[in-house]
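Protocol step 4 of 5: obtain the predicted structure for the target chain.
Materials: sequence only (see below). No template structures provided, no constraints applied. The aim of this step is simply to have a reference model before the mutagenesis design in step 5. Sequence pasted as it appears in the construct record:
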Amino acid sequence: MAEVAEGSRPEDCPGTSSAQAGRAAACQGCPNQKLCAAGAAATDPAEAAELRERLRGVKHIVVVLSGKGGVGKSTFSALLAHGLAADESKQVALLDIDICGPSIPKMMGLEGEQVHQSGSGWSPVYVEENLGVMSVGFLLSSPDDAVIWRGPKKNGLIKQFLRDVDWGEVDYLIVDTPPGTSDEHLSIVQYLSASNIDGAVIITTPQEVSLQDVRKEINFCHKVKLPIIGVVENMSGFVCPNCKKESQIFPPTTGGAEKMCQNLNVSLLGKVPLDPQIGKSCDKGQSFLSEAPESPATSSYRNIIQRVQEYCDQHHFQEEKII
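Step 4 output (structure tokens):
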């Protein structure tokens, strides 16, 4: 596949899969214009077939997105994986494609682990028997090493993760992405178009500074035809453990995620209050859900995870009806 050149996407980009890709007025001046116009941004048919074959054992794929960094996207990805894997009958995989800031190994208690290769490909690193993880963090000699790569090299590694990792039979593949709408996001959507992707969960915090970037993320999903499962509002108030009074650490000055979802006709999956134990659990590589089962945040997470499961089940049912 020819790689899309690095650079910012126009505000009104029609999307790489559109018939107007590279031809619309918004494409003028974009560094990717010639590639898109020539159809070079699309996935090669042979490559698509290869990826489809590798991922044929994956039942559900959920991509976790955020327009803004630091809103708890990787934390949610880790806890979504833990929550789904609590059902021992389910096989769960967590793929970290945040190439420059891979925090999943730390959060999952897997720092220092390495990837092993077998005849069937790279083997994920397992937290539990039914929870496997893959991240660029496993390929670094030190967690402090900086990954200084341009777009094509990032895209190549994402493709390698999907093509060369022996995922096996998986009920849920959770994909943790970097913030924004850049190379990694275009690549994962293009590569996963060869398989059955359920949709995206978008993470935000209540304040307008975060919401304005999440609106761009929602717009991105619409343009690349990525279904939106819903939005999660993290850091949604803080309940004092002593007096039980709630404080708004990040005031929702424009109505928060709830108002935004109403305006954009997107589902609000839930709101997760702040709890200092979340950060502590992530730093220790432990599941907050099992470390603080009585926390209001744990209750919120579990309700959200259930809604994601229900969406995936319904999506799978609809796909079977079409077939």
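Step 4 remarks: Confidence is low (pLDDT under 50) at residues 1-8. DSSP finds eleven helices and twelve strands in the chain.
Proceed to step 5.
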